[in-house]
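> forwarded from #structure-qc
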């Protein structure tokens, strides 16, 4: 796959000042309070997951789940959040949805990127 997926993400480890490489990320569709797995991936050396699926995305409720606890534990560090889940709404199936995660051991922030 060479084109980026309709949903992409990027994790910056603010505590270390580097991209967070090697974090497991899952994407789910939420419908009727049920999660359906859409894609699984791992952040690359630049902390990105860009081309992890190539199917179109439908309007609706989605969830990104980041395995932050496992990632910090693999580095010998503790964290307050064993995972970070970010829910977002897809309204335009032709748009690109970039959901970055700014992360440290004790907190996180996000926004809709480009």
């Amino acid at each position: 796959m060479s084109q980026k997926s309709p949903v992409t993400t990027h994790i910056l480890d603010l505590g270390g000042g580097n991209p967070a490489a090697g974090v497991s990320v899952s994407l789910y569709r939420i419908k009727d309070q049920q999660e359906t797995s859409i894609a699984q991936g791992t952040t690359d050396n630049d902390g990105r997951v860009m081309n992890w699926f190539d199917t179109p995305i439908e309007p609706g409720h989605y969830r990104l789940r980041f395995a932050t606890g496992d990632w910090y534990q693999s580095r010998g560090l503790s964290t307050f959040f064993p995972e970070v889940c970010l829910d977002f709404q897809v309204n335009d199936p032709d748009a690109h949805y970039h959901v970055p995660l700014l992360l440290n051991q004790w907190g996180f922030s996000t926004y809709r990127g480009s």
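QC bot note: Residues 68-74 form the longest helix (7 residues). The chain has one domain: 7-110.
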